[in-house]
Amino acid sequence: MSDPHLNLINGAWVPGDHLSENRNPSDLADLIGLYAAGTAGDVTAAAGAAAAAQPGWFAAGPQARADLLDRIATRIEADATDIATKLAREEGKILPEALAETRRAAQIFRFFAGEALRMSGEALASVRPGVDIEVTREPVGVVGLITPWNFPAAIPAWKIAPALAYGNSVVLKPAELVPGTAHMLARIIHEAGCPAGVFNLVMGPGSVVGRAMVEAPQIGAISFTGSVPTGRAIARAAAERMKKVQLEMGGKNPMVVLDDADLPTAVAACLNGAFFSTGQRCTASSRLIVQSGIHDAFVAELTRQMMALRVGPALAPDSQIGPVVSVQQLAGNLSYVDLARAEGCEVVGGERLDLPTEGHFQRPALFLNARNDMRVAREEIFGPCAAVIRVADFDEALVVVNDSDFGLSAGICTTSLRHAREFRRQARTGMVMVNLPTAGVDYHVPFGGTKGSSLGPREQGRHAAEFYTTVKTSYSFAG
Ligand code: NAD
């Protein structure tokens, strides 16, 4: 353990208010490291440094920005095993998932290296003779990035990379549970030659560091991923200060299985969507909406495969499902298991598991005979728990799909082209999957949802420019 891990402000590693312990949810005896918890003053310093550095960073031009992002991508690829190991140790996802996420982070930096060169605008003729019009994109300035614990590499990457590519400077605050991966990313960005102040890392509690970021006058835009209550509080505070916000929040993602589905495809999609990454994905399939004719065969096979999943430490080679991230999250999951019983579901699995190392292990759970008006079908659990809701036909399935406060991702398993087509058009979500899990997305296309799941422009792909740039319209008359 090389300690302590400090914040990066204006190109220098600085201590915060105190040091915070980072422990392994697969083995609480494993202390991963001590990480600086910053103060509001640290945020002021980071935001000030970022504001001072930003004009020079934009003026350096697209080649300099593309080159930096490219070097960062190369370093992440080279260090992928180390980064993924730390990620798996602190977040709890199994090593293959952590490696895939880390490689995804590198791909995102590489994608936005290209986008830096493709920052484009429009030239139009004016309605007034002799006047030319140019519509160009400019950076917002300083952006504040606030990230959750469940994708400690990919989510910071998909915010940092477009922010830097389009010429902004950055203050990043990662979730308290996963400072290690963010710290490794920060070190890579710093060592890849990012100019002082262009990228700043301030770790620490949301109530101190996150709040100060939303309040900092130099920070012009906040991109946040996390829970709905935090998102709502950020939106309120940002509106008072006229800040641009992008909020990516929760989900209660439906997966429909129709009678005509290919059973192995449907079971594989639901097993993956509901339980992989311990169900700790905003796009996890947490409502399985199953037509009567296939219901019993589907439930029998999904139950069999779910109960065979090997729950274990994130770094153990035979683990398929890692631990829940924290003791609080585990307690929340277990209380939803109790609630499912109290609401009248038959519960399969879901119990806490005692393994040789002390960690937050839980067997995945199915809540059978659920109804869509139950709390277990309406509230995001964010754990390895899925409610199974029986429906009579496609039309009823669609009503259930759209009867939710969330609208992130929706899926359908069917061999009917007509139903697949209708579903893609009628599902009120930002992402729709046909014969694929609701979770698992590409990095070069937009990501985001509707209703309570998202607010503001989409993340990722070329659509990221909507948030990370502002549009300027210039008129000129040559005389
Ligand atoms: P959270 O809301 O508790 O925390 C998210 C971040 O906000 C953390 O960095 C936290 O420190 C910070 N924060 C907390 N209070 C704050 C405040 N008052 N001001 C500013 N920042 C503050 O969420 P979490 O538990 O880390 O993550 C789980 C949630 O994230 C789930 O609801 C999940 O669905 C959601 N999520 C959404 C997406 C998506 O893209 N839609 C992706 C991943 C996770």
UniProtKB/TrEMBL annotation:
Superkingdom of the source species: Bacteria
Aldehyde dehydrogenase domain residues: 19-473
Gene3D superfamilies: Aldehyde Dehydrogenase, Chain A, domain 1, Aldehyde Dehydrogenase, Chain A, domain 2
Keywords: Oxidoreductase
InterPro entries tied to this protein: Ald_DH/histidinol_DH, Ald_DH_C, Ald_DH_CS_CYS, Ald_DH_CS_GLU, Ald_DH_N, Aldehyde_DH_dom
A single MF term (Gene Ontology): oxidoreductase activity, acting on the aldehyde or oxo group of donors, NAD or NADP as acceptor
Active site: 248
Family assignment from sequence similarity: Belongs to the aldehyde dehydrogenase family.
Protein name per UniProt: Aldehyde dehydrogenase (NAD+)
